[in-house]
Amino acid sequence: MEAGYRRGLGSRIARGPAIMVPVLVTLLCVVATVMPYGSLQGIPLAPMFPLAAIYFFVLTRPTLMTPLGIFAIGLTQDLITGGPIGLWILVYEAAFVVTSMQRVFFVGRPAGEAWLGFIFVVSLSAAIIWSLASMFYQTAIPLVPIIGQMMVTALVYPLLAWVFTFVLPEREGGA
Amino acid sequence: MITHRVSLFVAVVIACAFLLFDRAEATIFERARQAAADALSPVFEVVSGPVSAVRDFLADIQGYLAVHEENARLRMENAELLAAQAQARDLRRRNERFAALLNVQVDPTIEYATGRVVADDGGPFRRTLVVNVGNNDGIGRGQAVVDEHGLVGRIVGTGGHSARILLVTDLNSRVPVYVEPGRRRAILSGDNSDMLRLEYLESDDGLLPGYEVVTTGEGGLIPPGIPVGIVAGELNGIWRVRSQTSFDSIDFVRVLRFDFPQQIEIPPPSLPGQFIGVEVTPSDSEIITTPPATTDDEPARNESDDTNVAQPPSEEG
């Protein structure tokens, strides 16, 4: 067991930057999210790129998207968006837990089913965002912008997933 | 797997602790927030260029689709503006006369820095923007931000090369305003929608849609007289204000480097009839220092606006 662990650690170090790809790509998604796309009737037009990336990489490369990596992603988003620190960490960690639990159902299944799973994760994330932000600001924040942004995110997920496949690192021990 | 569970638990605990600390002491993470925005501002600046171009293109398409409605609105607005222009000329003439009579010193010109919006919060529960001007350009917390239509928001965080604007539409925004005509005081608050709320309105007797909403200058952060929007109507017992600014596509803004007058000179009683503003040597005068409001998200204070106005001394003896 110990030898196996050592082999695993050695191979991870040898793979170097490849194991960082999911977290780095998701961090780029955080930057992409805060670009000034504007809004439509108060609904932000920017999809939640990081949520889509986390879902995709947890499904496809679960060993490379860890809770600590997600912590770094959430903290980065909290800092650069100027919002309550900790909110996006909690949202993304919850998405990680739910996606990890769903993973067994979606491995080897058609992409359309993974999309349905993502819609579930997005809905849950919307509920968490609304609850935490309302508690933080001690008022019921408007639901429409949250639902609107989550719908945009769910709609563009297939396109984003297709883009993410181009940066998907090989599995440990070969493709 | 066990390692994952432990790290997940630790991450969640730390995140909860962060949220609690942030709630209890809002400024605790401010420096970290601004450092992050500042560090990434060159990236934002490079990437936001093409994004803004695409956004403008989409806005143009939207504009073409709404051209008939827009045309009708503009005709109506033009008619109103012509009437308002005549009224404004009359008011200007009267104001010049009053100014000459009272020997009121004209306020020093407010300096400003122009910045481009390079990022927004990207989230559904905040209304903030990041601009590419910061401390190095003389930008400070609390300064008002305007565009060509009026007040957009105010600065809530600054770094060397960037600053964060809290939009007037944000849930946490509170701006003391007057509704004109009638000079009714109110607090203009945001609720994350594009329509602003008039709260603590002094009186809504005779209040009509179309009335103008301007800043009072109370609190010393935002200069008085900046237009904020137009009264749109009443909804569920709350008067709503529509800003002329399109918050969906703000690109360039001006940050007003407004300094609230902190020292009020009171002439000695031996100079009856002399008005404030006439040169008085420091040795002859008493100086009162009034600290400007510095806290963010602070509701309007109950101080009278008259504290900003120079009063003639009462005659003694």
Overall mean pLDDT score of chain B? 73
The biggest beta sheet of chain B, please?
Answer: 6 strands, antiparallel, barrel
Number of domains of chain B: 2
Classification by helices and strands of chain B: alpha+beta
Query: Beta-strand percentage of chain A?
Result: under 5%
Largest sheet of chain A: 2 strands, antiparallel
Classified by CATH, the class of the largest domain in chain B is Mainly Beta
Outline of chain B: globular
**Mean of pLDDT of chain A:** 83
- CATH fold field value of the largest domain in chain B: Thrombin, subunit H
Please give a handful of descriptors for the protein shown.
heterodimer, A: 175 residues, mainly alpha, two-stranded antiparallel ribbon, 7 helices, 2% strand, globular, B: 317 residues, Thrombin, subunit H, 2 domains, 6-stranded antiparallel β-barrel, 14 strands, 26% strand
How does this model look, in words?
The complex is a heterodimer of chains A (175) and B (317). Chain A has helices at 2-15, 21-33, 49-60, 67-81, 87-106, 111-137, 144-164, and strands at 39-40, 43-44. With 175 residues, chain A is mostly helical. Chain A has one domain (20-34, 45-166). In chain A, helix 2 runs parallel beside helix 4. Residues 101-107 and 273-317 of chain B have low confidence and may be disordered. Chain B has helices at residues 2-24, 30-65, 67-102, and strands at residues 111-120, 128-131, 144-147, 150-158, 163-167, 174-180, 184-189, 195-199, 212-215, 227-235, 238-242, 252-257, 263-266, 286-289. Chain B has 317 residues and is an alpha+beta fold. Chains A and B meet through helix 2, strand 1, strand 2, helix 4 and helix 5 of A and helix 1, helix 2, strand 1 and strand 2 of B.
